[in-house]
Amino acid sequence: MERVSTYREVDQIWDACLRVIQQHIPDESFKTWFEPIRPLKIYGKVLTIQVPSQFFYEWLEDNYVNLLRKALDYAIGRDGLLEYSIIVDTGNDKHQPLTMNVSTQKSPNYSRPDNFATDPRMGSNHKDKDQDSMNLDTYLNPNYSFDNFIEGDCNRLARSAGFAVAQRPGLTSFNPLMMYGGVGLGKTHLVQAIGNYIMNHFDNKLVLYVSSEKFTNQFINSIKNNTLQDFTDFYMKVDVLAIDDVQFLSGKEKTQDTFFHIFNHLHQLGKQIIMTSDRPPRELQGLQDRLLSRFKWGLTADLQTPDFETRIAILQKKIQAEGISIDYDVIEYIAHSVNSNVRELEGVIVSLMAQASLTRREIDVELAKNTLRNIVMNEDKEVTIDTIQETIADYFQVTIADLKSKSRKKEVVYPRQLAMFLAKEYTDLPLKSIGYHFGGRDHSTVIHSIQSINLLMDETPDVEETLQKLRSYFK
């Protein structure tokens, strides 16, 4: 007879699932789609979770089924199943349960190297060892492809080099291929797109994608279990090694030694090596010189913050993928307001969809503005162009509409210039986007406003005093 676990056990199991999930998705997506979930019970190997709506359930199944499978593998085991209890808004607080088991079929791309299990293409006879050891994420996410990677000036070199490598792995001069850039700019998407392309076009190629953190953990486990030779042999048999976030190898001397030998072996055999990092090789600290020199053998390509046109394309692609329709003025507002990375742009669309569904509202500029205000509110009270406009309007007793209007009255022009000056000081928005938020003015008007305030500060002490008062509102 299957045992029903206690509430404490259910919470512990779900907390374990959440730890896995949180590592693989943006914070905003995690808050929107996983924080509202409540664990109800665990009966044998079946975990029941409570979700707030039918839409919520369908979104999880359409977008996160593979991630939920991975979380269940970690928290319960490969035979773990998931059941949903959906709240139906009938006014009587009753639940209508809906059962849907997440598929237990593992990705066919690769076997688990933590057990050094046999792979038909490797011709080895390693026995399974330590069945309870850490699961190493070796399979690729099929959602990452070149088709849904938006190309722009910010990433054209990396994308072109990546596609060349995917077409001729190990045969181009781009070996190793090192791609670097900040968080959320598409490094992981691109490296996995390369892996997926090779898997789909070269049946005989063994592709291994792994984060440097998990590579390190696997290395430590192999020492603990006295299987270091098996570990090294496993990696030396792959045809394409893609290792994410190599900066995390910093300071790990023994791990670097092993990776150095694996790197040399693969490179000498003409196998393809792909790496990502959050900074260029010359800025990587705590890595051996001999490794850094090898990182520079091939091509180093950077991914930069997307420009306005690329941000528009990213948003349109995301909206198309979700099968929804959003007016262009909303897309334009988001593109002008979010100037950081691809992940945050896509997170805004997810949040907008959730807000529209939960509040039963159409997605318009006002909803986008409210959603963005909620996203950027954090412990540091991040200053946005909206908060600057609101503060200026209150201080000078004008309306936000006045600030965006074509009025040339002195009582409007001066506050508008101050607002543009502070927007340049407090936000990362380009001049073009600042002008957009002030009635669609061009960047030259913003430059003129900033220069005008600088001149006034030199000529009139009161202007500097006014700025200090305004700045105090943002602390």
From TrEMBL:
Q: Where is this region: Disordered?
A: 101-133
InterPro entries associated with the record? AAA+_ATPase, Chromosome_initiator_DnaA, Chromosome_initiator_DnaA-like, Chromosome_initiator_DnaA_CS, DnaA_C, DnaA_dom, DnaA_N_dom, DnaA_N_sf
One biological process GO term for this chain?
regulation of DNA replication
Q: Which GO terms describe its cellular component?
A: cytoplasm; plasma membrane
Q: Where is this region: Domain IV, binds dsDNA?
A: 357-475
Subcellular localization, per the record? Cytoplasm
* Ranges of residues in domain AAA+ ATPase: 173-303
UniProt free text on domains: Domain I is involved in oligomerization and binding regulators, domain II is flexibile and of varying length in different bacteria, domain III forms the AAA+ region, while domain IV binds dsDNA.
Its annotated function is as follows: Plays an essential role in the initiation and regulation of chromosomal replication. ATP-DnaA binds to the origin of replication (oriC) to initiate formation of the DNA replication initiation complex once per cell cycle. Binds the DnaA box (a 9 base pair repeat at the origin) and separates the double-stranded (ds)DNA. Forms a right-handed helical filament on oriC DNA; dsDNA binds to the exterior of the filament while single-stranded (ss)DNA is stabiized in the filament's interior.
How is the quaternary structure described? Oligomerizes as a right-handed, spiral filament on DNA at oriC.
User: What is the designated name of this protein?
Assistant: Chromosomal replication initiator protein DnaA
Which organism's genome codes for this protein?
Dyadobacter pollutisoli
- Encoding gene (name): dnaA
